[in-house]
Amino acid sequence: MAKPENDTFIRALLRQPTDYTPVWMMRQAGRYLPEYNQTRARAGDFLSLCKNPNLATEVTLQPLARFSLDAAILFSDILTIPDAMGLGLYFAEGEGPRFERPLREEWEIRSLIAPDPDAHLRYVLDAVTQIRKALCNQVPLIGFSGSPFTLACYMVEGGSSSDFRQIKTMLYARPDLLHHILEVTANAVTAYLNAQIEAGAQAVMIFDSWGGALSHAAYQEFSLHYMQQILAGLKREHDGVRIPNIVFTKGGGLWLESIAESGCDAVGLDWTIDIGEARRRVQGKVALQGNIDPAVLFSSPDIIAAEVEKVLASYGHGHGHVFNLGHGISQFTPPEHALALVEAVHVLSAKYHTDQ
User: Fold this and answer.
1) CA 106, CA 110: separation in Å to the nearest integer?
2) Which of 62, 136, 212, 352 makes the best surface tag, with the fewest CB within 10 Å?
3) Non-local CB neighbours of 218 within 8 Å, separated by 6+ positions
4) How do the pLDDT tens digits run along the chain, 356 residues long?
5) Which of 350, 274, 273 is nearest to 319 (CA)?
6) Whole-angstrom distance between the N-terminal and C-terminal Cα of the chain?
7) Long-range contacts of 276-280 (CB under 8 A, 24+ apart)
């Protein structure tokens, strides 16, 4: 497997020297792009778009045609695993993802089985292979999954939640049942990410979107523990090439040191933590990814450049930084403002990578 022509992103994750700070954006293929909306309309609905490798490839490449991004990320959804478990995923207009059969009864939970990615998630793996081919090895491709706890939130709640009442009730009243869900799901995520690596993903990321909703003790037991289990089972090399990984817990700044000790190569940061302080806290053990507030992109290009400079200056001189948003890009973002961000990172970061 030849390394990408632009491997700046991979080298940054491995804390190797780079000429500038690489940049990509969470949810970079999405509704803020007119061309994405056109492709989604052709697909008929979001799930059909995810399950069509040709269209998933098309939308994955769309932001790279507009912006000089340093990585592509597979277009898919974190809920592919519970969908493959038979929970009946659907997307209600204006309500987001929902499950027809959320996990509430003990017999349902005890019957839960990790899906075989080759059999039940083949459309994702086919998309990974197709995207890699279409990229012509210009930039790396990121594969991903939701974390076990985040997936469990949707599986138990039946969809998005503002108070996590169902899963937190289970967590405290029947922790044995939640641990069973998490164990099965962790096995599923490990197999799924490894299958993505075998299909061509050159880095992988775990999205722990809801880990920040937990108490200190509960985060360690019900979220971080299972991500550590996944990291221990991940392929670190494929075809002789190192495959780095990233862990992102939204709201996870309180547990930064613990996450850095989890076995990951990089920690993703949301916008609530100063990246310079985060760098001091992790003591060079991992790379850092982040972490500008996505709302900055609603301002002018001049302000965007100034805010980019603040993040770069806070991280400081040296390597091991992947620039990103602190969460996914908003559907209301003007595309030209995303372009201003990418260009500002490339121009302004070079001085932080020169020899001192």
Assistant:
1) 6
2) 136
3) 171
4) 678 999 999 999 999 999 999 999 999 999 999 999 999 999 999 999 999 999 999 999 999 999 999 999 999 999 999 999 999 999 877 678 999 999 999 999 999 999 999 999 999 999 999 999 999 999 999 999 999 999 999 999 998 888 999 999 999 999 999 999 999 999 999 999 999 999 999 999 999 999 999 999 999 999 999 999 999 999 999 999 999 999 999 999 999 999 999 999 999 999 999 999 999 999 999 999 999 999 999 999 999 999 999 999 999 999 999 999 999 999 999 999 999 999 999 999 999 998 75
5) 350
6) 34
7) 276/314, 276/315, 276/316, 277/314, 278/253, 279/315, 279/316
Contact predicate 60/131, CB 8 Å: yes
| CA dist., res. 150 & res. 161, Å (int) | 11
**The two structure tokens encoding residue 193:** 């990410």
Amino acid at 58: E
Is residue 102 a contact partner of residue 87, using CB atoms and an 8 Å limit?
yes
Angle between helices 175-199 and 165-173 (to 10 degrees): 120
Residues carrying an active site annotation: 27, 31, 40, 77, 154
Give me the helices (H) in 30-116, please: 34-43, 46-50, 53-66, 80-84, 106-110
DSSP for 223-248, please give it. IIHHHHHHHHHS-SEETTEE--EEEE
What pTM value is reported for the model?
0.97
- DSSP, collapsed to helix, strand or coil, labels residue 95 as coil
For 8, residues 6+ apart whose C-beta sits below 8 A from its C-beta are 18, 19, 20, 22, 70
